[in-house]
């Protein structure tokens, strides 16, 4: 994971090069664009990242607790928890993930259990 823009200095970091090195090493690259969106142009194809994450309340001036997660290829990421919508046909015992972002929906976390 690498930030596109430093939160301390505002420098735009060499993300494209870092993503290329990660790809050549067989690693997944994730770019944190929280400080970038709303300030600099973010072109996910140009970055070459496998994923880009951001939040909505910094320079986008959106509400707290909002954000985004862009993924080049969903097959690179497996859900860490399963929910009702994670699998294609959960009631039948399907082991196939949904082909879209719903594979990451786990439902409402039971806070009382913690």
Task: Give the key terms.
alpha/beta, 2 domains, 2 helices, 114 residues, single chain, four-stranded mixed β-sheet
Structure write-up:
By secondary structure, the chain is α/β, with parallel strands linked by helices. It has two domains: 1-76, Aspartate Aminotransferase, domain 2 (3-Layer(aba) Sandwich); 78-114, no CATH class. The chain has two helices and four strands. It has helices at 15-24, 44-47, and strands at residues 2-3, 30-32, 51-55, 67-71. α2 links the parallel β2 (30-32) and β3.
Q: What is the CATH C-level name of the largest domain?
A: Alpha Beta
Overall geometry comes to globular
Secondary-structure element string: EHEHEE
Number of domains: 2
Strand arrangement in the largest pleated sheet: 1-2-3-4
CATH superfamily of the largest domain: Type I PLP-dependent aspartate aminotransferase-like (Major domain)
């Amino acid at each position: 994971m690498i930030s596109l823009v430093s939160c301390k200095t505002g420098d735009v970091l060499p993300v494209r090069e870092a993503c290329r090195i990660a790809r050549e090493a067989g690693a997944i690259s994730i770019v944190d664009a929280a400080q970038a969106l709303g300030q600099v142009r973010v072109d996910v194809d140009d970055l070459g990242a496998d994923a880009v994450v951001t939040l909505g309340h910094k320079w986008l001036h959106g509400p707290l607790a909002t954000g985004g997660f862009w993924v080049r290829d969903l097959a690179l990421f497996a859900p860490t928890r399963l929910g009702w919508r994670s699998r294609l046909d959960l009631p039948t015992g399907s082991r196939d993930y949904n082909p879209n972002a719903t594979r990451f929906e786990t439902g409402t976390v039971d806070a009382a259990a913690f």
